[in-house]
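May I ask for a single protein's sequence together with how it folds?
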Amino acid sequence: MSTNDPTALLFPALYEGDEDAVVRLLRAGVSPEAVDEDGQSALYLAAVSDRPGVVRLLLAAGAEPDRLSLGTDAPLCGAACGGHTEVVRALLSAGAYPDTVEAFGFTALTWALRQGHTAVAEALLGAGADPGRARTGGRAPAGDGGAPGFGRLCAGAARARGGRAGRGAGGGPCRLLGVGVEAELREGLARAHGSGHAFVTHRHPSPEGVTVEVQLLDARGEPFAGDDLQTGHAEIVALLKASTTRSGR
């Protein structure tokens, strides 16, 4: 895009959070559904950049809250992954479907659980997000490494919604929050790289909990593949339990 193209000017303004410039460009005729030179939508980029004011402007101008950027990435999921609670609320207020599914079956609640974003999970649950529909494409958010009774909680929530808790591959976070984090990572790596590899596990403390990292080792003992998940999401487990109780589940 040319720098003289008003659409091209939208994206620097978006990244800088320059709401006045965004308003001027929208009034000049720039589409709220504009995409950058890589094909990413303005709304998705504003969502993942934690620009709630810009998100609201684009939505007010007619941007579709559930339109997938590049056909794969949902603005709600991008905001949830980053823990951008105000953006999540803005999208939900504009009509974003709380159980929107993006590529590989991920939902916003999947990302909130995986990343430990309690406030985001609360907003999504308040908007009606169903934990039983949070498919994960073969990988799942990790909870507190096995919260007692959490599987029963999720099953009860699913029954209350007239459905069933996720089962089998890609079943959803309710099933996998009760699975050991290290075991789940090892299973995923085995599916991707084959079984029988030596491995090493690292645990990295953080303010939000502990990140568990599993690395596969080659014949020389050097890591050649790995994966990690954050744990310590007891607050979200408690939130879901309280939500279930309030709903009479």
Residues 135-179 have pLDDT under 50 and may be disordered. The longest strand covers residues 198-206. The domain at 1-98 is CATH 1.25.40.20 (Serine Threonine Protein Phosphatase 5, Tetratricopeptide repeat). The chain has two domains: 1-98, 130-249.
